[in-house]
Amino acid sequence: NADRHKQQSMIIVPRDTRGVTIVRSLPVFGYDDAPHGHAEIVFDNVRVPAGNLLLGEGRGFEIAQGRLGPGRIHHCMRTIGMAERALEYMCKRSLSRVAFGKRLAEQGVTLERIAESRILIDQARLLVLKAADMMDKVGNKLAAKEIGMIKVAAPSMACKVIDWAIQAHGAGGLSADFPLAYDYAQVRTLRFADGPDEVHRNQIAKLELARYR
């Protein structure tokens, strides 16, 4: 009968505890990050000392929320970095690659994509700076809307920029010769990590509507 935010607990379970079986690593988009990343794990009648309980019973949600704000900002900062790298690759490739008798940098579609990439990256960067500043000054709870906004905006922006960079590289952009395919897989995953876009959009909309009720 506890409050819904006090029904979860966090417990440390050492990897070598009896009953813990790591079945397999879970590749994402074909990339295997083992031993990092996520895995399928079976817990069979696992027991650990009561001292392995973090902070206390029912404080799991509190712990999770404490790291989600900074964690989401960290994700978005890395995402902006990957988008910047993709734009750099796109610019350099467009200056060296020739198609239909002209360098890509002389073709309208490429010019539009480069310009739009710069606009989108800088928009996302400013929004992330605002969210980080608010989190520092007023805390995670009052900055929840801004943190949710960047969690939607930054990965979506980076997916678009990296996709355009891949197009500029042709089939090479899909290969391991460039970091673009791997970066795309990482950024696309972030639209699920720490909450999918749909959850964040719902929360943003509710907070916005609350201003007029």
Key terms:
213 residues; mainly alpha; Butyryl-CoA Dehydrogenase, subunit A, domain 2; Butyryl-CoA Dehydrogenase, subunit A, domain 3; two-stranded antiparallel ribbon; 7% strand; flat
Explain how this protein is built.
The chain has 5 helices and 4 strands, in the order ββαββαααα. It is mostly helical. The protein folds into 2 domains: 45 residues, Butyryl-CoA Dehydrogenase, subunit A, domain 2 (Beta Barrel), CATH 2.40.110.10; 150 residues, Butyryl-CoA Dehydrogenase, subunit A, domain 3, CATH 1.20.140. The protein has a two-stranded antiparallel sheet with strand order 1-2. A two-stranded antiparallel ribbon has the order 3-4. Strand 3 and strand 4 form a beta hairpin. The longest helix has 37 residues. It is flat, with a radius of gyration of 21 Å. The mean pLDDT is 93.
Short description:
The protein has 213 residues and is mainly α. Helices cover 55% and strands 7% of the residues. The chain has two domains: 45 residues, Butyryl-CoA Dehydrogenase, subunit A, domain 2; 150 residues, Up-down Bundle (Butyryl-CoA Dehydrogenase, subunit A, domain 3).
SSE diagram, text form:
Layout: E1 20-25, E2 39-43, H1 60-96, E3 98-99, E4 102-103, H2 108-138, H3 144-169, H4 180-189, H5 197-210
Antiparallel strand pairs: 1-2, 3-4
